[in-house]
Amino acid sequence: MSQSKRLPRSSNAQNNQFAEALKLVDQALDTNRDDGEGLLLKGKLHHQLGQDNSARQALARACELLPTSFEANYNMGQLALKLSIDEALPYLVRAYELRAPGAIADALRNQLLGVHFRAAHTPLDLARSDLARGNVPGASEWVAKAQAVEPGNGEVRLLAGVLAQRRGALDEAERELIEACRLLPTNLNAHLTLAQVYVGENKKADARRTLEKLLAIVQRQGTGAIEDELIRRQAREMLETLGN
């Protein structure tokens, strides 16, 4: 995965080179309009020539064809920033999820940390990305941003509780997860994580009560996804262990 930065604006001689390269790319694309790498290069060349509208069109299509390309999403996000943060964020968040460690990834993180989010869903996505990589401190920064805009959001409280659990701050985790269960009364993961925290605190009666509530929810609504079935099995196993 290439994470090379966008090239700086070029001289007239370089512009001529880019224009000639663009002609060759367009010729290649005439035979295959869905060549994602070709469209990515086309977008970068248009950008070098100062043709940002054409660059955005090519890069947007490249992102569709190359959804796991950091370079396509990063470049598209940076160009879209010239229009609006709302247009840019989906691409920048996707690039953040795809990033490899390095200076550009660090710069992208700092860029996103400077965004004034109006809703919790984007910082939550960024937090989940960091958590999936085992970066609990990084995920906690995003959750703090989500809490600042939507402190009463159940998903925010759930992830805050999970992160507190990962840090070993069980009192904090318990408070966050109790609130998450109140706000998300049918969320199986919230109840299972709260039960795990109770076990860690040696509050076996509270853990049993929470697991029994979880299983009652499952009985009412069923398990609509594989993840739900896994949670149900884990809850039963925990109950059996607590019963010994």
Say how many strands there are: 0
Shape, per Cα inertia axes: elongated
Q: Can you tell me the CATH topology of the domain at 1-115?
A: Serine Threonine Protein Phosphatase 5, Tetratricopeptide repeat
Largest sheet: none
Which spans of ≥5 residues are poorly predicted at pLDDT below 50? 4-8
β-strand percent reads: under 5%
Q: Topology of this protein?
A:
Elements: H1 12-31, H2 36-48, H3 52-65, H4 70-80, H5 85-98, H6 103-113, H7 121-132, H8 136-149, H9 154-167, H10 170-183, H11 188-200, H12 204-221, H13 226-243
Helix pairs in contact: 1-2, 2-3, 3-4, 4-5, 5-7, 7-8, 7-9, 8-9, 9-10, 9-11, 10-11, 11-12, 12-13
What would you say this structure looks like, in words?
The chain is mostly helical. The chain has a domain of 115 residues: Tetratricopeptide repeat domain (Serine Threonine Protein Phosphatase 5, Tetratricopeptide repeat, Alpha Horseshoe), CATH 1.25.40.10. It contains 13 helices and no strands. Helix 7 runs parallel beside helix 9. It is elongated.
List keywords for this structure.
244 residues; 76% helix; Serine Threonine Protein Phosphatase 5, Tetratricopeptide repeat; 13 helices; elongated; mainly alpha
Short description:
The chain is an all-alpha fold and 244 residues long.
